[in-house]
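Note to self: user wants both folds in one dump. Writing first protein now.
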Amino acid sequence: MTNTLKMRKKIIIKEFHETPLRGHQGVSRTMKRIIQHYTLKGLNADIKEYIKLCASCQKNKSSNHSIQQPMVVTTTAGRTFEIFFLNIVGLVDLSCKSNSYILTIQYDLSKYSTVVPLPDHTANTVSQAFIEHFVCLHGIPNSIVTDQGREFMGKVFSACCKLLKIKKINTTAYHSQSNGVLERSPRTSIEYLRHFVQNKKQDWDQYVAYAMFVYNSSVHTATGFQPHELVYGYPIEVPHTLSKISQKSYKYEDYTNELRQKMQESFKLAKDRLIDKK
């Protein structure tokens, strides 16, 4: 391999791995992003070596940190916002905006995730965030899944669910003998934030939107689709400096027909894959 080709591959891997819109993801997801644009021999081995030498990845990989384990459920939603998971993650550092917790919301079928910075995790704060960042944007779901934290088990949140006619499911922490869907959104969000706030920890909540962009634009291993694609019907195209993205032209009628057909096919494939993994 010539030095020119080696340098070009290194530049490509760096751009698809290290920028805030890429998020220092692992070998598999970095690989999937690159092969959408390039065909390069020996790319998998090069990505493995690059990530092995990435100082930020070695410092911040999840095995070095203790993070609350995810929850499981054994049912699978049949539409995008039918069932979703709520979880509270506590962060050590108080941000400049006085936030020290995050509320994570992940939708069962699509795996689409939303993260909301919070100043505390009282029932009032969590209920308000849930209404503003989910219900007002996506409507009222059939069911929600939470752990048995005080903010979810108290009268305020229970009354909120009762008022909206939402079935509330309480689960215990995940253990290796359980069956169900592993929800990795909280862990992935924390991993992302560690990469980009190492020297400015009080600014962590300014990077939350970028963390969710990375997560929702990455192909999920359980469904085989980007979470964004299962919600909106098309994958996110992340622009990069090395090539241009081609634009597709549509008529309104053709677009709606194609979108409806694609969403139906995608939902069926995603649900089948989720069921197979249980």
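First done. Writing the second protein, which came from a different request thread.
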Amino acid sequence: MSLSFLATTTPTTTSFDRRSSKATHSVARTLIRKRFTPTTCEQKHEGNGVGVNAERSGIDRRDVLVGLGGLCGATATFGSNMAVGAPVQPPDLSACRLANDLQLVNRVDCCPPYGTTTITDFVLPDQSEPMRVRRSAEALASDPVYLEKFRRAVALMKALPADDPWNFMQQAQIHCAYCNDAYTQVGFPAVSLQLHGSWLFLPWHRYYIYFWEKILGKLIDDPTFAIPYWNYDQPSGMRFPDIYKNSPKDQNPLFDCIRNPEHLNGALMDYRYEFGDPSPTPEQEESVILENQKYLYNMFAENLFNPGNFMGQPISEGQTLNAPGTLENLHAIPHRFASQVERPRWHMGNFHTAARDPVFYAHHAQIDRLWTIYKERRAITTPEFPTDEWLEASFIFYDENRNVVKCKVRDCLDPTQLRYMYQTDEKAWLNIRRSYYTKKKAAPRSAGADELVAISEFGSEPRLLDTTIRVLVTRPKASRTQEEKDEAAENIFIDDFTFDHTDYAGFDVFVTKATEGLATADLGEFAGSFVHIPHAHGPSDHRNILHLGITYLLEDIADAEASEQLVVSIVPRSGEVTLTGVSIQLVPKEGTS
């Protein structure tokens, strides 16, 4: 294409759990043996204390959301023993290749229309610029002035010429290119550049939606314009947001027809949703909301001073790794919830096409917001990973001034320096622990829940996760003191498991106490999930890693803290996963090594 769109620049370089624990077997992939172009909606329409302090957080020390004096500073330990080297570098745009849609046989073209042009370094905006305030999609549903502005901006973006880098589809293709194998790492032609499954996930997506927001503001000449976020951490926001829906009288540019229609009419989102699961009944909704909130609580409480667990594990140039943090695993659920159940699960359920649905950006604004909450509650001024391997990692984007810019992680860590912030919202999940356990204790026990069953160790051979696997795992130390807990987190390590990256995969993890090699049939407390959406991840021999904190979870399991062994249960949810082992390890917290 012509580079007329580019500006001229100068280079600067439980029984309480209502879900079934039955295995969900993988479904054979649908292979489409010819180039497949998705039908668009338009075509169809046409024919288309945590660290802060105990008083502020309202949560006692046992809930972890408090300030731990000796931990607020110094050097981070990444929560893993993985070595890091040089930072991942931005791609060579001129070497962009056809990307993989792993639900298809053929490759797809996601390359940007600015493969050979001047690249300049990103410069933070003038700090005198007005602050853009991102509000919840729920709150904005009652603001007709904002809605008209937002719809107009997206409509203008969609109406731009097809080869304009600001065009809505061109913007969506950025996600496809970075996440579906269109780029290799510079200097490592056999290694894909992948922005999921590591500590690059959050900063890359922050830049991505930042520039989308800035371009929309430019199109409507409003420097104060801010995109919404989907506030699914709040009970009232755990449903598909109304502003992205359509009606017969209203051809809404925020609407996308390639969604799950069963989830557009008030269905509650379950944080452990799997394709095909029925929506919670009215009688189940209170329980699901409580479990969702406890999921969030655990994410923050267990991982506050272990950023690798929360944000994704470290990766350096030349490495291939799939080690998503708890926040990224949660992020896969709204992708699935919005997606069609039928394969290939365009748009939100497939990373090749996910950003073609406008709700993608509200979803990722919420993930970005949860990152800001994490950082605020840590109350630590140093970056989560104070190392150049993270801070100097960089990406390339097309900005609101039609420049191609190189963006470093270090420049996106403070949203206020990017001149945006989030409205203050209630965070009821920060105080959910007591009510959760009160209701759990009052819930009737299911038949057979207290029956003792024999549990064995994992063994030395890999095991196919085609039914629930329960294993005895020896702890590094039982009956740890509070000081010991402040110094090191107790983690479940599920390392080097394998699965088909071209398909969907997922499993849930539970933990309970063991008594002389026996445990009740009740799986115990939910510790976390692994949730995979197909995307290219380089060579098939890369590592798949899941680390889940359980330090404070054990305090709420009777007698578990004194147990020398725990029972870890892995419940298959989708895909064909093979496990190679399960262990429990102590990981030093920040400032303690």
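Dump finished. Worth passing along: Residues 282-303 form the longest helix (22 residues).
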